[in-house]
Design brief:
This protein is of the alpha/beta class. The protein has a single domain, classed as Nucleotidyltransferase, domain 5. The chain is 48% helix and 16% strand. Helix 3 crosses helix 4, helix 9 runs antiparallel to helix 10 and helix 10 crosses helix 11. The longest helix is centred in the C-terminal third of the chain and has 26 residues.
Length: 276
Amino acid sequence: MQHQTLFVFDIETVPDTDAVPNLTGFTEPGVEARRAELEGYHLEITDGRNPFPRQPFHKVVAISFLEADIETDGRQEVYLMKDLRSGGEADYDEKRLLQGFFAYFERARPRLVSFNGRGFDLPVLKYRAMVHGVAAPYLYNAGDKWNSYSSRYSADWHCDLMDVLSDHGASARVRLNEVCSVLGFPGKFGVDGSQVAGLFDGGDLEGIRHYCETDVLNTYLVYLRYRLHTGGLAREGYNRAIADIIAFIEQNQDARPYLGAFLEAWGIASGNRFVI
């Protein structure tokens, strides 16, 4: 299938403390106490190795995405950036957030691009959609056995850069920030994932969305370089896509200062060499 839309996405989450009583029998109502109980549970089941909650025990608090049109030029592709934004209303409602995501997905039927999206983001979205009774039939029924969103090796359907760049686990799975550091992209700056719960507790949904959008931009930049490397994108097409990003930031940075900060950090990381 020739997808016509590229959908680069990322999510941010906080622990689902509502599930704790059913999981462990712990009934203390305080959020911090329940988070500690959830961490303790995961430390116990991993023999003290990892307190991070498994995928079902996350509430989605932000979904950010970059949308681009895919055009073909012979055997190569060209990407035309359309938008970068986050889903959701001013107030937090996880069900509406998931309904909006999957409604868009069913309509656009895009190629997905993520960093650890197969291992974390998409499984979380699936579990949380089931919690709220949100249907996503196209995610499971499109394509065939070998070419589909569910097929791990179908990078034309869902390109999980963490998985692809490690040759599906043959080499070490690196972090997005690590890849960005060697490619001259901004990576993490200002905020990181460990701060999301605190921002959420403080009611700063906007700050979480801004952080999530910069992660999406980093993911898109890595994807463009990967496609250039694999021959799916010509050098001219790569530089055009980079110019699109810069133009988008310059047009929107007055209203969205975090984009201007991203561009400044990109200039520092790359020595102001944005194109190849």
